[in-house]
TrEMBL record:
UniProt KW Oxidoreductase keyword: yes
Comp. bias intervals (Basic and acidic residues): 1-12
Active site: 244
Sequence segments annotated as region (Disordered): 1-20
Chain ranges of the Aldehyde dehydrogenase domain: 14-479
Domain of life: Bacteria
Protein name: Gamma-aminobutyraldehyde dehydrogenase
UniProtKB keywords: Oxidoreductase
Recorded family membership: Belongs to the aldehyde dehydrogenase family.
Cited InterPro entries: Ald_DH/histidinol_DH, Ald_DH_C, Ald_DH_CS_CYS, Ald_DH_CS_GLU, Ald_DH_N, Aldehyde_DH_dom
PANTHER family registered for this protein in UniProt: ALDEHYDE DEHYDROGENASE-RELATED
Transmembrane intervals: none
Pfam families: Aldedh
Amino acid sequence: MNYWNGEHHEGRGASFTLTNPATGEVTGEYRLATAADVDDAVAAAKAAYPAFKSLTPGERADLLLNLADELEARSEELASLESQQTGKSIRLATDFDVPGSIDNTRFFAGAARQLTGLSAGTYWERSTSMTRREPLGVIGSIAPWNYPLQMAAWKILPAVAAGNTIVLKTSEMTPGTSLIFAEAATAAGFPPGVINVITGDGREAGERLVSHPDVVMSSFTGSTQVGRRIMELAAAKGARVHLELGGKAPLVVFADADIEAAARGAVAGSLINGGQDCTAATRAIVAAEHFEAFTDRVAELMAGVRIGDPSAPATDMGSLISPTHRDRVAGMVDRAREAGARIRTGGEVPTVDHLGEDLPGDRETTAFFAPTLITGIDTDAEVWRDEIFGPVLVAVPFDTDDEAIALANDTPYGLAASAWTQSTNRALRAAADIEAGCVWINEHIPIVSDMPHGGYKASGFGKDMSQYSFDEYTQIKHVFIDQHEDPHHEWQDTVFTT
């Protein structure tokens, strides 16, 4: 269940069982990657780097276009496997995850040919200066389990478009689509060793990848706690890092907002991927005069969300990633309830689907949790402060615009936010004053390949997607060409005069 140098390799570690979290069904078993497996994958990437970085941007673009075609040809397989391993609805995988990854591939095919620097010019007498944007070398990336295919694409594509080679560690729980991605790259003509995937846990495989002396840059998406550990490991060898960490996105509904649009945006924005999304709307901050109407409508819409078998096209929301994670989400909601919060809808493990039929599996082996709206909490509550990473939205009222902005920023995180208003001035103020890497106006969630994605504060630093992502995977070199004909250069007189 590893892929390096254009071939599959069995891991040398402990056995790991793959389970469908929506049915409890065992879907496979494999052996985890060890530090020795990581070493082999890095060695393959290092060997492939000199030749790959020498390709022209156009040659790399052609490979990426071929890769997009290969992924498109396997789109049904990718969507089915993504749904099976994560528990997400097949509709989300088919309409969002897979086409988004293919579009991202085609974007970077074009972007590979736009890696420009400053134009050449004279900045010192009788000389010409120019800049070169060059790849770094072997990249070590770690992707999470919530969007396995998309996160593989976000990390692999800008790295190889810029001329790097890469070893990606995918989550041990969701290895399938990342391995297909690597297979598709080989079929597309990528040389062996350019794109490599390992499947192992963070403690052994992940730490070895980040600390490996031949890995010159590490990219990680996941929790802030693990991100700090990665910074420590990278700092020990003086390597750079790119981190996209946790989020606690506010959804601010101003007094002049379209309440129906805001309520629908809040439900979609909080429940996408079962809320297992760092950019998901988690804190609704609503003008007091509309608070009751807004929360009533959100509760009504959430109660109508169709929970059930992820493979059924009519299902809106499948399961969470695992029973262990479901219990963590349920525990946070239970503690809020015990502290006096009002659970407007949800807050429990459902037992039947939207048709009234029993959900597959049982509580011990499946990971369903109902869409949940919580009100009546203080802003020092756990559900307000900490990332829940589940289908839970917490709502509080506000009286003034200043208070709304302060509540939006009342978090250590800063990945994404949205503001709902019909006022241009309010929209511009929210965009400027909310501390987040992305601020949507009258929408929440849309992400496009052409625009950057990344956080402020404890949500990390650096950008995925867009031309800005190349800043993470390239280095700038100044080339100075002297044009004096006289061997004596005037500035040298400051050092010696003979």
